[in-house]
Structure formats: structure tokens, C-alpha cells
């Protein structure tokens, strides 16, 4: 608990004004909660004709004497009306005092809730923003072994769980303890014997409640982890819906979802059963306390004559004022267990270290003048090396193509040059500078990436293309579409470049999506282009249009082309043939054909496709 509050402190400090005002109004709320019951005493005394007669106005003797002065002044005013036979006016005065204290109590409670609302919502929004920034910032390697659904569950479900449970503590941390303290002060001023009697039951109640709630946190953590799996199943089902349907695999995915949902149900029921015990347990303990208090208090009133009956009734009200916040604290302690599990999962992401940070002395590069040099690099995602002692140079203005069978390490080169991952051995240099010594932002500013999966976002064509250059004009966007051979279909759309592409660009064909991706890269206008099998998923007609667009874009530009279809890279300045992470051949198209090696075999295999 202390650990989580410590982690939350930087967020709470941003809203310290609301914290101060909340504490201030909660203290006033607690004070008037206790005074509300104390104010019943003079009213009861008037009703039962027990008001002490005071004939002389009291004298003010300083702040320390405020209790006696207030009591004497009220008795002086009330007894004056009673002496004159105006008992109705006396009753109006004491009733007005009761109404005023209850009114002020609720008014201060309202102000306190307003400020806790601003505090809670502000902290949760700040948490969400920081978490999203962290998710975007973390390297791709972080997600290679994680389910996307689990990360989504943390930023959505877990933060909501914190709002619904853990942040209740912020509401109770001042108000309820202060209410108990003020009530106890007034109770001890009335009868120390009765007060001690009440206090004996509070530790017992706390012990019983803590025993019941002990296992809540572990069950809550399991439930939240399972929620992440459930979201992953839904996300994967929707992403691969065509495959699911074409293989009639609906029962498999339905079964996986049902099992996960049933596991959540069992865990939720366990949590709910223990949560539901909080109310009845605290209620029963409260009734027992009140019953014993009535027995012992009745004895003090009727037999020992220690306190008056009217005062005892007010004391019972104060005892109730203690039990109500005590019950609220006990119920909150259950919910806090859920919130702590959620908070642990949120802060786990927030405290995740970036394994590829920019170095303190990293430099910014603004242009590309010479070459990209890949020198004896080796790399592995897990245990086995994907690249072994790989070296190649890409001079400015030249096109280097990487070819080979699937799993030969071609796409890994693209991941390493863009620094999505860091090499295990060797160096990748841009104009002689190791990319580890260059800021990631300035490095990627020099590069445009077009992948096999044409990734579009659920927004307009215009906004998708502007991602690489947000300040570009509409005319620039249209020119980029023309270079990418995309304007021919975009201009015929009812809303033109304002047309929404749909979820993942599904309103368009594969060829159209790929040309929009190329337009995005064209608008960015980087000096280095990386094409990762940009045409491999297209039909022949679409491939031709996309290939023309690529050739226009690559003109006078440095390019690294990862190709599956060899027909697309015949004009490359250098073709590197890869196998199992190593170079087996390199040269121009004609040179490699003349060698009669692996490249020629690949060309012959594709000519029959």
C-alpha cells in the first residue's frame, strides 16, 4: 500500500490545490458530523424539560473556554424564553441549531467530494497519458513476447479498476478517520467510561475484516491477467476473421473465449463473495456494539445516574457516527485489494525500462551524404543467431536489394537499420557514425519505410498520408498520391482525400492500400527508403502499378529493398543473396545469373510461378 501511494505521489502533487481543499473541507465535514449529534442535546433537553436555568449572560474567557461559553450562552437564551413561557421559541432556536449543523456538514461534504473528483479524474487521466506515452516509447522487443490484449487491458481495464476501488482511499483517507476522531473527542467529553467501552469493539471488527479480505489481492490479480487474455482473444479473432471463417474455426475460438470467460467468472465470484461479506460483517458487529452499549449505557443512566438520558441519546448518535465511517473503511479495504492488484499492473508498465534509450551524448543528424555501412553484424531475437557476420555497404543514391528464402534474415536487416532492435555484435553506420550514437528520432527522420503489410489507420486518406509530414499542404498530399499511382482511384471517391480508409484500411484493396502507404513515404521525402517486400502480397496488375510507383519514388534515392519477387529488383545496383543469415552471393542481376548459383535457381523457380 505504501509503495503504491509513493508511486502515485508525483501524480498527486500535480493537483495539490485540490488535495489541500479536499482535506480542509473534509475536516469541516468531520467536525460538523460530530456537532450534528451534539446539537441534539439542547433540543432533547427542551423537549424533556431538562434545560439548565442560567440567569446571567456568560463571560468570554478565551478560545480554550469556548465549549463552556457556548453551552452557557445557549442555556441563557433558551432558559430566558422558557422562563417567559415562550417554549415554542426556545424549541425553534435549538431546532435551527440542529438544522444548521446538518446543513453545514452536507455543504462541506459536497465541496470535499467536488475536489476529490477533480483529483481522482486528473490523476487517472495523467496515468493514462503517461502509460500511453510509455507504450509508444518502448522498443518492439518488449512486445515480441507479450499479448497486445494484456497491454490494452492494463491501460483500459486496470486503470478503471483503480478508479472504482483504489481511489476510494483518497476519499476516505481524511474524512472518515477525522469523523471518528472528532466524534471520540465529544464522546469522551460526555462519558469516558462509555467511550472506552465502544473502543474495545473496533480492533475486534478490524481483525475479523482483515482475515476475510486477505486473499482478495491475489484473486484480483489473476482476474485482471485473465481479462488481458480475453481481450487478446477478441483482438486476434477480429484481426483474423477471414481465416477463422474460411477454416470454419469458429468453434475453436468460441471455445477459447468461453473457457477464458468462465475463468473470469469463477474468479469474479470468489472476489464478489468476499466483497459481499464486508457489509454484513460490519453491520453485525455494529449491532452488537450498539446492543452492548444500550445495556451498559442504560445502567449508567437508570441505576448509577452518571449521565442524563438526553445526553445518552446524543452519545448513541455519536457512537453511530463512529460506526458508519468504520464500516465505510472496512468496505473500502476490500475494494482496495482489487485496486492494489490493478495498480501493480499499471506501474509495472510505467516502470518498464527502455532497453534502447538514446545515449546522453547521442547526436542529431539532419542529412545523409555518403553511405550506410553494415559491418560484421550478428543478431538473435532469442537463442539462435538470425544474422552472422553480415556486411554490406549502401552508397548514397544506390539501390541494394536483399533476396533469399523465408527466414534468411532479410527483414531483420530492415529492423536493425531503422533501430527497432540493436545488433548483438558489429556496427551499423550512417555517414561513418554508429547509429547507437545517433538519436532514434533524427535517424528515423532520414528514413521512409514501406512494409509488406500496408498499415493504415482508421482515419481519412489525407491524415494517413500526413503522418510523415503533418505540416504538408493539400497540394503536397495530392502530388504524393500522383507519384504513388494512387490519385487515379482517390480522385474518383465521393469525398476524395477526406475519405475514411476504414479499420486497417479495409475499405480498399491490397494494391490500393499499398499505394497509399507509398504516398505516405513519398510525402515524407526521406533520403533513405527501406522497402520490406512491398509488392509480395499483390496481384500482378496491382504489382505493376505499385512497382511503377516505387521506381518513381526510388529515383535518385538511397534504397534498401527486401524482395520476394525477383522481377522487382533486376535494376538494383547490388543484389545480395542471403541464406540462414549469411551472404552466399552478391552482384548485379546479370552477374549473378552468370554465376549459375542460388540466385539463378531462385529466378528459375519464380519464372514458373
UniProtKB/TrEMBL annotation:
The places in or outside the cell where this protein is found are:
Cell membrane
Q: How does it sit in the membrane?
A: Multi-pass membrane protein
Which keywords does this Swiss-Prot/TrEMBL entry list? ATP-binding, Membrane, Nucleotide-binding, Transmembrane, Transmembrane helix
State one molecular function term (GO): ATP binding
Identify the domain of life: Bacteria
Pfam families, alphabetized: ABC_membrane, ABC_tran
> PROSITE patterns of this UniProt entry?
ABC_TM1F, ABC_TRANSPORTER_1, ABC_TRANSPORTER_2
Q: What is its main location?
A: membrane
The protein's matches in CDD domains, at most eight in alphabetical order, are given as:
ABC_6TM_MsbA_like (cd18552)
Which stretches are transmembrane? 20-41, 89-111, 166-188, 194-212, 277-296, 302-323
InterPro entries for this protein: AAA+_ATPase, ABC1_TM_dom, ABC1_TM_sf, ABC_transporter-like_ATP-bd, ABC_transporter-like_CS, P-loop_NTPase, Type_1_exporter
Q: Which residues form the ABC transporter domain?
A: 372-605
Which positions carry the signal peptide feature in this UniProt record? Answer: none
Q: In what residue span(s) does the ABC transmembrane type-1 domain sit?
A: 73-338
This protein is called ABC transporter ATP-binding protein
Amino acid at each position: 500500500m505504501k509503495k503504491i501511494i509513493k508511486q502515485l505521489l508525483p501524480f498527486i502533487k500535480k493537483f495539490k490545490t485540490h488535495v489541500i481543499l479536499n482535506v480542509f473541507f473534509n475536516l469541516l465535514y468531520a467536525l460538523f458530523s460530530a456537532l450534528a449529534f451534539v446539537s441534539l442535546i439542547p433540543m432533547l433537553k427542551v423537549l424533556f424539560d431538562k434545560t439548565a436555568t442560567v440567569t446571567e449572560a456568560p463571560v468570554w474567557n478565551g478560545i480554550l473556554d469556548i465549549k463552556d461559553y457556548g453551552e452557557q450562552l445557549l442555556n441563557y437564551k433558551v432558559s430566558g424564553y422558557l422562563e417567559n413561557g415562550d417554549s415554542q421559541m426556545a424549541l425553534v432556536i435549538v431546532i435551527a441549531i440542529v438544522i444548521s449543523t446538518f446543513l453545514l456538514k452536507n455543504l462541506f461534504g459536497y465541496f470535499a467530494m467536488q475536489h476529490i473528483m477533480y483529483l481522482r479524474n486528473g490523476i487517472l487521466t495523467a496515468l493514462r497519458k503517461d502509460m500511453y506515452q510509455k507504450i509508444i516509447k518502448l522498443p518492439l522487443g518488449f512486445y515480441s513476447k507479450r499479448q497486445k490484449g494484456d497491454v490494452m487491458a492494463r491501460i483500459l481495464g486496470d486503470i478503471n479498476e483503480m478508479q472504482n476501488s483504489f481511489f476510494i482511499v483518497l476519499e476516505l483517507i481524511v474524512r472518515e478517520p477525522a469523523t471518528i476522531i472528532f466524534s471520540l473527542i465529544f464522546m469522551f467529553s460526555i462519558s469516558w467510561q462509555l467511550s472506552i467501552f465502544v473502543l474495545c469493539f473496533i480492533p475486534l471488527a478490524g481483525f475479523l475484516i482483515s482475515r476475510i479480505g486477505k486473499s482478495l489481492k491475489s484473486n484480483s490479480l489473476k482476474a485482471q491477467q485473465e481479462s488481458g487474455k480475453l481481450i487478446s482473444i477478441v483482438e486476434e479473432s477480429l484481426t483474423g476473421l477471414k481465416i477463422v471463417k474460411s477454416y470454419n474455426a469458429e468453434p475453436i475460438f468460441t471455445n477459447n473465449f468461453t473457457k477464458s470467460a468462465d475463468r473470469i467468472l469463477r474468479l469474479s465470484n470468489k472476489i464478489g463473495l468476499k466483497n459481499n461479506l464486508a457489509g454484513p460483517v460490519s453491520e453485525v458487529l455494529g449491532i452488537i456494539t450498539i446492543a452492548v452499549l444500550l445495556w451498559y449505557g442504560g445502567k449508567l443512566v437508570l441505576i448509577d445516574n452518571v449521565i442524563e438520558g438526553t445526553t445518552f441519546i446524543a452519545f448513541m448518535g455519536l457512537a453511530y457516527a463512529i460506526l458508519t465511517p468504520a464500516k465505510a473503511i472496512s468496505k473500502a479495504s476490500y475494494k482496495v485489494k482489487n485496486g492494489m492488484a490493478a495498480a501493480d499492473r499499471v506501474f509495472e508498465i510505467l516502470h518498464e525500462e527502455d532497453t534502447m534509450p538514446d545515449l546522453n551524448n547521442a547526436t542529431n543528424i539532419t542529412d545523409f551524404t555518403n553511405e550506410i555501412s553494415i559491418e560484421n553484424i550478428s543478431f538473435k531475437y532469442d537463442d539462435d543467431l538470425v544474422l552472422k557476420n553480415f556486411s554490406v555497404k549502401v552508397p548514397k543514391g544506390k539501390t541494394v536489394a536483399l533476396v533469399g528464402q523465408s527466414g534468411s534474415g532479410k527483414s531483420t536487416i530492415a529492423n536493425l537499420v531503422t533501430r527497432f532492435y540493436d545488433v548483438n555484435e558489429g556496427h551499423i553506420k550512417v555517414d561513418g557514425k554508429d547509429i547507437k550514437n545517433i538519436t532514434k528520432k533524427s535517424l528515423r527522420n532520414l528514413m521512409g519505410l514501406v512494409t509488406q503489410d500496408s498499415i493504415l489507420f482508421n482515419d481519412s486518406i489525407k491524415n494517413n498520408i500526413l503522418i510523415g509530414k503533418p505540416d504538408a499542404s493539400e497540394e503536397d498530399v495530392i502530388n504524393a498520391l500522383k507519384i504513388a499511382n494512387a490519385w487515379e482511384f482517390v480522385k474518383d471517391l465521393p469525398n476524395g482525400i477526406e475519405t475514411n480508409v476504414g479499420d486497417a484500411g479495409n475499405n480498399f484493396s491490397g494494391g490500393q492500400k499499398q499505394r497509399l502507404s507509398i504516398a505516405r513515404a513519398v510525402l515524407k521525402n526521406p533520403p533513405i527508403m527501406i522497402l520490406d517486400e512491398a509488392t509480395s502480397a499483390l496481384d500482378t496488375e496491382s504489382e505493376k502499378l505499385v512497382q511503377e510507383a516505387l521506381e518513381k519514388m526510388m529515383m535518385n534515392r538511397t534504397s534498401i529493398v527486401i524482395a520476394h519477387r525477383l522481377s522487382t529488383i533486376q535494376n538494383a545496383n547490388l543484389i545480395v543473396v542471403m541464406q540462414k543469415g549469411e551472404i552466399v552471393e552478391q552482384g548485379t542481376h546479370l552477374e549473378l545469373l552468370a554465376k549459375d548459383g542460388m540466385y539463378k535457381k531462385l529466378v528459375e523457380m519464380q519464372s514458373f510461378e
